[in-house]
Amino acid sequence: MLLPEEILKKYWGYDQFRPLQREIIESVLNKSDTLALLPTGGGKSICFQVPGLILDGVCIVVSPLIALMKDQVRQLQERGIAAEAIYSGMKFAETESILDDAVDGKIKFLYVSPERLKTHNFLNRINYMTVGLLAIDEAHCISKWGYDFRPSYLQINEFKAVLPKVPTVALTATATLKVRTDIIEKLELKKSNLFVQSFARNNLSYSVIESEQKEVKLLQILKKVEGTAIVYAKTRNRTVEFSKFLKANSISADYYHAGLSLKERNTKQEDWINNKTRVMVSTNAFGMGIDKPDVRCVVHVDLCDNLEAYYQESGRAGRDNLKAYAIALYNENDLENLETNLELKYPEISFLSKVYQSLCNYYKLAFESETFESYDFEIQNFSATFGLNVRLTHYALKLLESQGLIYLSDSYFNPSKLKIIANSGEFYSFQLRNPHLELFCKTLLRIYGGEIYANYINISEQEIGNAYHASFNEVVQNLEFLNKHHIVDYTPQKTMPQLGFLTPRQDADNLSLNYKDIESRKVNEKKALRAVKFYTEQSAKCRMLLIQDYFDEDTSKTCGICDVCLKLKKLGLNTESTNALTDKITKLLPCTAANLELQLANENKEEMAKIIKFHFENGLLTIDSQGLIFRR
């Protein structure tokens, strides 16, 4: 059996682990339940992939994002590791084939969505699988206090009961103390080991700039900071506008969003990764799973809804541990828009009912119908069909998803797949009866070999057409003919978003909604929004320290390189002695000025007055009617 370091070297080419990775792996190999918090770029996947290769049996990985699942499976397969994923939009026969391979020990990593865990065919196959490890990626999704709660994650614990002796490793990049406690409780991690890496990024300089001319300010930043950059914007239109502006000013830039075709997205992404394009202006659809270490700058031209999302997105800069910059541009309208958007995210119950009823009509869903069937979904077409506002409909769908009634997946590429389901004798007889397709059938076997009888194979209609000397459309027609006559099982490629129902059809006027839960989610989001506003508007506390405070990391060490630290340094307020005094003052609050002076009688009075004045002027301290000084 190979040691973890040998596995790391063999498959990933690294000589040593990053901080905490080895300890986490050791905990998993000891079959202890484990919760690991590693920041963006900290190497979470290694923490379950290395022990997954060492432990006997398949490692089941639960992940909420199809794009992330597909990306990790692709990376594992490129390293010669057997991995597959089951997600919405796949045919029943294809999922059965993958599950059969898992039972037969042909797969080492099986990625699934949390919804899949409760399906009958999956639970049935688990009884025959040797499972070595259960890995829960994006574990914060199980907590209602997390920024991306998924009700389907609450079902993981029921699934764990089927595998009582299998260790669980839960991983996330962003979790407050409350969320960590919730993860351990909801997953029932027994005698679990907790590993938390510092949220501090010593090479990443955070800044906030108020500007009414964001395009001009962005251009100044990109001219000053050389190298690859990502610019995040809220809407698709804004990605196009900012990209055009940059190109008009001699900056190599492009835009990216989920509304582009698959070919366009792949081309744009590859050009950026290979440094043919310097700046990618994108919605948050870009960046997940992309491990480009040399991003020197991440600029947000629109504010995020919460610090968790901002920390993840900004953390894509400087993964090579060299100096990098994370900059947020804002103006007063942005702060007002955040408040407005929050209200829109919680539409009236009557509108939720209308959207749900429209979905049932759209897909002709019968009462008490089977669940978990996946449908292509295009929100513009759906909204236009029923005269619904697209933006409000989007928020209604997300709320219905949070209540466990439906599930949504973003657009993703699922390549065409093919399997010959007729036996060799039937396949030969078919060719004799249809001589015009004999050469076509032989072409399929020549390109894909005998494996096409045993497994679903990713195929390219264009490749088949080139070999068969036919057009793309003619190849598709031939494959559909073979499919119709039950010679092959053919699934054309998909790029559409998917929507599915998680419960039998309900009465739209009496939906099983948890109103208390909806209200608590809204309260929680308001709290998160206040944290974003404070981070944005304050200019007296180290940005990195403020983020660490948000994630309940107990430290007083400032980063020294954010905009606030640099300003304090100019004022002489960022020395070792002033930092220590600031920490002492903070720990004594709330208290009166007289009590502060008494408690700190031996401290430098001039420095103390300077610190308190600065913090009052910059809104970090305030005083009430009773004369008590306290932190805001």
TrEMBL record:
NCBIfam families: recQ_fam (TIGR00614). PANTHER family: ATP-DEPENDENT DNA HELICASE Q1, DNA HELICASE RECQ FAMILY MEMBER. Belongs to the helicase family. RecQ subfamily. Residues 25-193 form the Helicase ATP-binding domain. It comes from Lacihabitans soyangensis. It holds the Pfam family DEAD. This is ATP-dependent DNA helicase RecQ. One of its GO terms (molecular function) is metal ion binding. Keywords: ATP-binding, DNA-binding, Helicase, Hydrolase, Isomerase, Metal-binding, Nucleotide-binding. GO terms for biological process: DNA recombination; DNA repair. One of its GO terms (cellular component) is replisome. InterPro entries: DEAD/DEAH_box_helicase_dom, DNA_helicase_ATP-dep_RecQ, Helicase_ATP-bd, Helicase_C-like, P-loop_NTPase, RecQ_Zn-bd, WH-like_DNA-bd_sf. PROSITE patterns: HELICASE_ATP_BIND_1, HELICASE_CTER. Its EC number is 5.6.2.4. Residues 217-363 form the Helicase C-terminal domain.
